[in-house]
Amino acid sequence: MGIGLNFTSASMAAVAIVESIHREIGVEQGFSDDSQAIVHLSVVWLPPYHFPVGLSEAFVAVGQTTFFYSELPKTMSSIASNLFILGMAAASLVASFITSTVDDITKRLGGESWVSSNIN
Questions:
Q1: Which residues of 82-101 are buried (b: 16+ CB within 10 A; e: fewer)?
Q2: How high is the pLDDT of residue 96?
Q3: Where are the domains of the chain?
Q4: Which of 14, 83, 76, 68 is nearest to 22 (CA)?
């Protein structure tokens, strides 16, 4: 599971680098103020992010499932696996709430949201 967490960190670093490059290219092409414009960026920029994400999911999910079935009593292992999936669903809801809250607060304070509809 530790290997999976390291891959998660690597994927976040990769997406930060790719998005900064995406932003630079959007500014260079003059699309920084046009929310409908499409930045011409190669699909080759996607695997540096998606590859570590897939590996992290594989290592963490398999590691946790193995842990649940090897360390817990048989009557609890399937419940623990289901609680793991329920926890992921709850985390998605919390992330959505945080994003909405940041969007609302930054619109009120600064006029423009940090979570802009303009991806460029």
A1: eeeeeeeeeeeeeeeeeeee
A2: 95
A3: 2-110
A4: 14
CA distance 91 to 66: 22
Q: Per residue in 102-117, pLDDT tens? A: 888 888 887 777 777 6
- Cβ partners under 8 Å of residue 74, min gap 6: none
Q: What DSSP string describes the chain?
A: -HHHHHHHHHHHHHHHHHHHHHHHHHHHTT-TT-TT------GGGSHHHHHHHHHHHHHHHHHHHHHHHHHS-HHHHHHHHHHHHHHHHHHHHHHHHHHHHHHHHHHHHHSS-SS-S---
Q: Could you report the per-residue pLDDT of 53-98, keeping only the tens digit for each?
A: 999 989 988 888 888 888 888 888 788 888 888 988 999 999 999 9
Structure tokens belonging to residue 55: 């590996």
Q: In the structure, what pLDDT confidence band is assigned to residue 119 with cuts at 50, 70 and 90?
A: low
